[in-house]
Write a structure and sequence with these properties.
By secondary structure, the protein is of the alpha+beta class. It has three domains: 3-285, no CATH class; 296-408, no CATH class; 417-475, Arc Repressor Mutant, subunit A. 41% of the residues lie in helices and 21% in strands. The chain is built from 15 helices and 16 strands. The protein has helices at residues 53-65, 162-179, 219-238, 284-292, 298-309, 313-319, 323-336, 339-356, 368-379, 385-398, 402-408, 417-430, 432-439, 443-456, 463-476, and strands spanning 3-14, 69-70, 73-74, 77-80, 90-93, 100-109, 112-125, 129-133, 138-142, 149-155, 191-201, 211-216, 246-251, 256-262, 272-273, 280-281. The strands form four sheets. Strands 2-6-7-10-1-11-12-13-14 form a nine-stranded mixed beta sheet. A three-stranded antiparallel beta sheet has the order 5-4-15, with no helix packed on it. Helix 7 (323-336) runs antiparallel to helix 8 (339-356), helix 9 (368-379) runs antiparallel to helix 10 (385-398) and helix 12 crosses helix 15. The site of magnesium ion (MG) has 3 residues, from loops.
Length: 477
């Protein structure tokens, strides 16, 4: 029998607001344990939450970008569970009236485009972090993350392959980063997903029983986990067994998932309306204000780069794949007016340096003014392209000023044709074998002679004039 994989995702993103959702503590990642805390976020009796308006604003922004309806009348609910990472013993979340509903986002996997439905997005608070210390056989708790605002983005069970899941997560991450809603640093846990997987015989209407793997924070692990889990379930069904609904744990090292606990349901959490927070009313004005101030999203940028700047679809795709790349491209182009050059610099040298230094695009710190100055130096023939590469590397690594750097290191192109001419004479005299080869029709020898001349002039000669003068001299031999 043929089976179809069905996946639904619950993605948590930590918001980049300065302060936590119900108190003034910082949301900054890390810090000495239990230093970003106060009576509110550690759940001290008698303390009361105050809603952070920025969280609502970010939620509306995310909802609009994902084509959701925005709920005008919002309430919070308490989700009760007892676990040491949650000092209040309940999480403030939205069960009944989530802020965004009925959205959709277009993805493309294996060349096929389709929509993934967004069931809802709700606001909630993050919990603290438990650190298990195997040496002292104890568990430590850090409440710095407690009360950091989260959006939970719940998809419909619309995915049919691991590839679609990754396409969606990549897109979601891009959008959130462009919106400035979250930095989505997966290694810091600011984007993580609960992955629900089931299988069903092709043609069957009803969904199969799902399992859920919680808190996954690497695309690679998610991809493998979906494939593994589908295969495991198919094997169970093929043997005449039944898949049980449960929470499973993905073990990255063993490349397999393991049963953790049977799935809890809404009753287990004893949800009830949060009595300490007022309902939030969202006006039409507020929504249209957020809408009018939405930043341009990657797809719109891609289309514009192609039509406005003449970039290829491929280049436009790479450059818009990260916000920092797109902004570097736009700002550099705005200063020097040379989009093709800016694009080539990013696609060539910058990409090479990123991979060489294992730098993530979000950590790029290249001043667009400096990139633009460098492009002008090259285009105006002040330095040649190979020197340009060297200077760009200095900008990338050490933030040097290209104009000063070129002057101080004497990298300006030589525009002294008599020096070039003398050097070529010497190269010709020193390489009789190559001259013979060239006369015998070996064009390769020409390239060699150009190379020798450039070397003698420390790469600063204008390659065009070296070519011309050398050709002329050889023709007269
Ligand atoms: P819960 O809140 O108990 O986790 P939900 O019904 O809210 O359950 O669904 C959570 C997620 O599981 C959603 O992303 C949904 O798309 C997904 N899901 C639901 N049923 C299935 C299924 N049979 N197979 C795969 N995913 C599913
Ligand atoms: Mg769930
Ligand atoms: Zn606090």
């Amino acid at each position: 029998m043929n089976y179809e994989t069905v996946v639904g995702l619950e993605v948590h993103v930590e918001l980049s607001t300065k302060s936590k959702i119900f108190c003034g503590c910082t949301t900054e990642f890390g810090g000495e344990p239990n230093t970003h805390v106060c009576p509110v976020c550690t759940g001290m009796p008698g303390s009361l939450p105050v809603m952070n308006k920025g969280v609502v604003e970010f939620a509306i922004r995310a909802g609009l970008a994902l084509n959701c309806d925005i709920t005008r009348h919002n309430k919070f609910d308490r989700k009760n569970y007892f676990y040491p990472d949650l000092p209040k013993a309940y999480q403030v979340s939205q069960l009944y009236l989530p802020i965004c509903q009925n959205g959709k986002v277009e993805i493309e996997a294996d060349g096929v485009k389709k929509y993934i439905g967004i069931h809802e997005i709700h606001m909630e608070e993050d919990a603290g972090k438990l650190i298990h210390d195997p040496w002292d056989e104890c568990t430590l708790v850090d409440y710095n993350r407690c009360g950091v605002p989260l959006l939970e983005i719940v998809s419909e069970p619309d995915f049919r392959s691991a590839e679609e899941v990754i396409a969606y997560l990549t897109k979601l991450r891009d959008i959130m980063m462009y919106l400035g809603v979250s930095d989505c640093k997966m290694q810091e846990g600011s984007m993580r997903a609960d992955v629900n997987v089931s299988v069903r015989p092709v043609g069957q209407k009803e969904f199969g029983t799902r399992s859920e793997m919680k808190n996954m924070n690497s695309f690679k692990a998610i991809y493998r986990a979906v494939k593994f889990e589908a295969k495991r379930q198919i094997e169970i069904l093929e043997e005449g067994g039944k898949v049980v609904q449960e929470t499973r744990r993905w073990d990255e090292n063993k490349d397999a998932s393991f049963a953790m606990r049977s799935k809890e349901n809404a009753q287990d959490y004893r949800y009830f309306p949060e009595p300490d927070l007022l309902p939030i009313e969202i006006s039409d004005e507020w929504i249209s204000d957020v809408k009018n101030n939405l930043p341009e999203l990657p797809e719109a940028k891609r289309t514009r780069y192609i039509s406005e700047f003449g970039l290829s679809e491929y280049d436009a795709g790479v450059i818009t794949s990260a916000k920092q790349l797109a902004y570097l491209f736009e700002d550099t182009t705005a200063i020097c007016g040379k989009p093709k050059e800016a694009c080539n610099l990013i696609m060539g040298e910058l990409m090479r340096l990123l991979s060489e230094t294992s730098t993530l695009p979000e950590d790029i710190d290249v001043d667009p003014k400096k990139a633009a100055d460098l492009i002008n130096l090259i285009v105006d023939g002040k330095i040649n392209r190979s020197v340009g590469k060297e200077v760009f590397e200095e900008i990338f690594r050490n933030d040097v000023d290209p104009i000063k750097y070129v002057e101080e290191n004497g990298l300006m192109m030589l525009n002294d044709d008599s020096l070039v001419s003398d050097t070529i004479d010497k190269v010709i005299a020193d390489n009789p074998k190559s001259i013979e080869d060239f006369k015998g029709g070996k064009e390769k020898a020409f390239g060699f002679l150009v190379g020798q001349t450039m070397k003698a002039l420390k790469g600063k000669a204008n390659p065009k004039s070296v070519n011309e003068i050398l050709r002329e001299k050889l023709s007269k031999l």
